[in-house]
Write a structure and sequence with these properties.
6-stranded mixed beta sheet
Amino acid sequence: QVQLVESGGGLVQAGGSLRLSCVASGSIFSLDAMGWYRQAPGKQREWVAGIASGGSTSYVDSVKGRFTISRDNAKNMVTLQMNSLKPEDTGVYYCNRWGLLFPWGQGTQVTVSS
């Protein structure tokens, strides 16, 4: 059974930064493309960023140039560096496979105040 544990969220002012981390257990992590997703209040969960097993990355347009996804296969970890945060970035952030999804973890709350 795959388990995903996200951490690093918090309350930050607009323009600030946060670094989210996700540790995956129970999967062959290095073979999986991984992604970050978020769910804003009252909205559906959306994909934010993805990183392939080989390291290529992709982002939703709204975060391009501000967010950076990376991975450490030795630690089964994927991170999301978030800079120049905006109030519209507020939500619960989740990591998961970029593709066929694992069961969701608990997520980590990010709140950006204006």
